[in-house]
Every structure is written in structure tokens, then in C-alpha cells.
């Protein structure tokens, strides 16, 4: 049986520890290190946040081949490999599948799922996306991703990547073979992704790119838990899941009010904990002589967006749409009235 890969810990603070570290100071006087002070400054100053997202992974050689063909635009873009090659052409996707021996990978010969069944075959690869906001130099984004891949996967897992610059913000698609050369499988967990974001931000900063990696909750932004399939369908405008949700919200609005949500209470409770932790952080910063940074933390908390559920966002969008349509209708009526009087 293949062994699991236990990725080494970076020794960094876990999620929410940046400020809960300060909260513990109620009982034990603590001081923030210089690295923590820099992290706090980057967060409250709005330094761009990196995105590292696992976007799925093919469970068959054919699926992997199709993904390679998609990310290299059917041979139009360069593919950078773990062996330092730059490959380009329609044959690259087939070449990589063959070179990585994906036809003989674990579970490759299991039959695919029947209609309505879950596909329980193991992934042959992990598809990972590294992204930064617009105006980030693409060549530096690629260089940071290449360093990340070397540090995490070199001589263990085969990998290849493609840079995209045609969608408003530069991003890199990294494909990593799930099974290592010695038979171990790569398992990506939440803690793994947190560490990867931090490391990727560090590699960007080494190249002179302002980059940060703060958990979404600390920034007052609840995580979007939509499954990848729903998210992709939304982008195509084909999500039956979202259509049903919009229809339910529209019906509630027709009745005069939105039904209460348990999710709102949970979001408010989470926000309350985050604000309390940031407040204690500001208190400890003042005690440490970091008055300006403490003021920055307090201003940052005041700027946090209002807690809103997805349902409330849908309702807001529907109300705005109705208001826009009503305005257009009134404008059309006025124009018709003016034309009729002019006759």
C-alpha cells in the first residue's frame, strides 16, 4: 500500500493565531516578533493577498491529457516542466501523460462510475492554481511558482506548469503527479494550503512583489464554500443549484420578508471573535510601543465589511435588478408620453 506524504511543518502560527496569540497575553505578557509585526502591518495595510487553490485533478490518463491541452491552449502556450524544459505544441499533453506513466497509475484500470455514482478512483494528479491581482509582473509570478514547485516537489513528484496572462490577472496552472516516484501519495489538507500560501507569498516578496497570506476570516471575509462544480457552472451561467436558490429568495421577497438563517448567527459569532482578537492585538501593540501599528489595526477593524450571507447578497441583487427594471420602465413611459404630446 502506498505511504502517505507527511509534508514538513513550517513552524508558523496556525490560522487565527496571529491575533489569538495576542489574546493569550491577557494571562501571559507576550511580545510580537519582528516577523509577526511585519505580518500584521501587511494585513492592515491591504497588501495584495496571494491565492493558492486546488482546482481538482484528473482521475484518468485521458482526463489529465485533456487538462494539459486546456491549460496550454492546445499547444499555443509554453509548458515548464520539473526537468527545466520548455515544451510547446499540440503533442505536449500526450507526451507528459506518457512520460509520467499515468497509464499505469493507481486505480487507472478501475471502471469509471456509473451514472449518478461518485467517482471513487484516486486522483492521478492535483491541479493547483497560483494567482495574484492585475499588474503583478507575470514573469515574477512564474518564477515564484517555479521556486515553490522545486521546494515542495523536486525529485519526489513530477510536475509541470503554464502561465496565463489573458484573463485580467496573471495566474499559473501547476499540475502535480499525485503519486511520487517512490510510491507515496500526496494528500493536500487545509493546513497544507495555509502553509503553501505563506511560502508562496514569501517567494514573491523575495522577488520584490508585495504579497501577503492572511486567513480570510481575519480579513472579515467568510470563505466561499461552493464546490468547484457549482463554481464552474456559475461562471458558465448554468448552475441549477444557484438558480433554485435565487428562485427561493425571490419567493420570500414576494411574501414580504426573508426567512431567518442560522448561518447569519454563525457568521456574526465568528466576526465577534475576530474583532475581539484584533482588539487585544492592538492593546498589546501599544504596550509594546507600536502605537502607530495599533491605530492601524483599529482602523482596519472599522473598515471590515458588514457581515452578509449569500442569501442576503442574492436578495440585494434581486432588489437592484427590480429597481433597474422599474427605472427603465418609467423612463420608457415618460418618453412615450412626450412623443404622444408632440404629435
Beta-strand content bin: 5-15%
Unreliable stretches covering 5 or more consecutive residues: 1-16, 227-234
- Helical segment count: 11
Task: Give me the count of strands.
Answer: 6
Largest sheet: 6 strands, antiparallel
CATH-defined architecture of the largest domain = 2-Layer Sandwich
Order of neighbouring strands in the sheet with most strands: 1-4-6-5-2-3
For the residues shown, what is the average pLDDT?
A: 82
Q: Work out the radius of gyration.
A: 25 Å
Helix content: 40-55%
CATH class of the largest domain: Alpha Beta
Q: What structural category characterises the helix and strand content?
A: alpha+beta
- Give the SSE string: HHEHEEHEHEEHHHHHH
Distance between the termini: 87 Å
Q: In the CATH scheme, what's the topology name of the largest domain?
A: BirA Bifunctional Protein, domain 2
What spatial form do the alpha-carbon principal axes imply?
globular
Q: How are the SSEs placed, and which strands pair?
A:
Layout: H1 17-23, H2 34-44, E1 51-54, H3 61-71, E2 79-81, E3 86-87, H4 92-99, E4 125-131, H5 138-153, E5 159-164, E6 171-177, H6 190-206, H7 228-236, H8 240-255, H9 262-287, H10 291-303, H11 310-342
Helix pairs in contact: 1-9, 2-10, 3-4, 5-6, 8-11, 9-10
Summarize the structure.
The protein is α+β, with helices and mostly antiparallel strands. 49% of the residues lie in helices and 8% in strands. The protein has a six-stranded antiparallel sheet, sandwiched between helices.
From the structure above, extract its key features:
six-stranded antiparallel beta sheet; BirA Bifunctional Protein, domain 2; 2 domains; 6 strands; disordered N terminus; globular; alpha+beta; 11 helices; 343 residues
